[in-house]
Protein 1
Amino acid sequence: MAQIRKMDCQLTIKSSADKFYDVFRTKAQLTPKMSNGLVADIKLLQGDWNSVGAVRLWSYDFEGKSHMVKEMLESVDDENKTMVYKLVEGELLNYYKSWRTILSITPAGAGSLVKWTMEFEKQDENIPDPVKNADYLIALAGNIDAYLLKA
């Protein structure tokens, strides 16, 4: 019987928690500019950019190939700087029955701690854990941090 699994990855960054959270909370459409090539494009398909229920189409490069994923902003907790995204379409669903990504940012000294939690249910037990996806999310956070530090 399949079960929901979790995988966490985290990165300490130099940007403030407020500044980094604001990128994902209110400026998602700017991530292609900030990602240093990891995100090619993002389009709003439903709702508005900042509301729960918004559906966005991300075009991104992963392992040297172009991919697209459609996600819905499932919940937001501004006080705790946490956002939950649910995958509704995309290649990942060929391997996973369900996929949610939780982004949490907490202050840590002069910077912050960015934590990504992936919740997923594999299509079958032969599907590997999404370690490369975790690496991608860490690289994305690092690139956005570098951009914010230069701005």
Protein 2
Amino acid sequence: MRHFLAPAGSVFRTYATGSSSSRTRLGPTLSLEHFVQRSRALALYRHILRATRRIADPSTRADTRRFARQEFERNRGVTDLDHIRYLLSTGKTEWENMERYIDGL
């Protein structure tokens, strides 16, 4: 087993403090409000995926999941908080209407 000694403050300091390449890889830091809205979007998406399990027809279930994913992907780049809130509100309302239809089947 070999042991390598790194010069003081080289690789380990970069790892501990974070290098510029790790910052670009992770993307920009989110504001608290963006973080909260992102959490709400993920929660809605998960809720939709879980709720689609109640759809009996496998083809309809797959189509519903595909549509939901496409809508979330299509709006992935939205950064305006008011628009994000609007999309979440609209998406939640549309899904609630769809759930009433699913439960009625």
